[in-house]
Amino acid sequence: MLKNSSKKDQDSIFYEGKNAFSNGIDISENPYLKIDSSLASVWESGWNKALESRRAFEISNKTKSNSKKRELKSISIRYIAYLLGILISLVGGLTIIFGIFLFGYQVYFWLRTATWANLPISYLFIKPSVIYSSPSPLDLAPAWFHNTWLWLESPSDWHGIHRVVKFFFDLIPLSLVWVVVGMFPFGWGLTLIVKNNEALKKHNEN
Hints:
By secondary structure, the protein is an all-alpha fold. The chain has one domain. It has five helices and no strands. Helix 1 crosses helix 2 (37-113) and helix 2 packs antiparallel against helix 5. The radius of gyration is 39 Å and the shape is rod-shaped. The mean pLDDT is 86.
């Protein structure tokens, strides 16, 4: 029968099988099963071809969907990192500004009273023994860590090491510490901002 059927008839039966799949007709409902097995095979080939196309389409859509989800997740992470960078750099910037302000206040206090209000980092752990007329730069020195490092204030051992540590702690100004400490989060925050801002710009351009 297949030999006697024209190429045109075979193509018609093939596309008939494809259309049957599209219309929700099951492969078991092949209309040529009782007529001719060869024609039934052609119809079934069309039905299977449509099935393969549908599966390929679904896999492609699923891949695209997963790709979009991954991209959306990546962009969300980038955006959060960008905002985090702003927050971190803001904290670092404020810390640096406070250190500069502290030094400026020391200068202002000296210009006003002709007395230099020394603010070493040892005052973080030891309550200042000097008293200046209030308000003074000492009012800005945090007292959070007072009496938390008793060895620095009154050592019971390792007196040589204590002298070295105390010397440097009395030498380094607190304003400088604020500035240096603030540079780390400020620089890290700027790095996060620049890095993630570039990634977000590329995404928006695409």
